[in-house]
Amino acid sequence: MFSPGPIEAGDVEPDHTGSVNGSSWLPAGGHKQPLLDLAAFQLLEDQLDNPLIARSFASDFAKLWTLRYEALAGAVERGDEAGALDAILSLKTSSTMVGGVRLALLAGQFEEHIRNGDISDLRSLLAAVAECGHATVLELRGSYVLRNE
To answer: Is 33-142 a CATH 3.90.25 domain?
Structure first.
């Protein structure tokens, strides 16, 4: 199983241009999308009418990344389509809410494969999800959203 990577604040300097390169799984133009769209996160702040709640959600997203990835990877390894679909929909929704554009796109591709019954082909996509998820968490932690955490 591919590891989602350690998530430590000092691991890597976040790349604010947002770049996880080389994923053939992203839809056309997906690699040009930012890892993190702060406008989407600001929308969440506005919708909740409380930036602290939105930041708490983003903090939970970062803290739960490894568990979410492990649930997804475990479901794929077991061939559990329902479990994989549940895990990827959770990841897709939460990454969209925090502005994780590229991760949400990958999750959409993953979801499409599951719905088409292509779960055996998803092992190679797990590596792209792990890499993008790790980079998204680093980007969140480097942005104003979680910088002081």
So the answer is: no
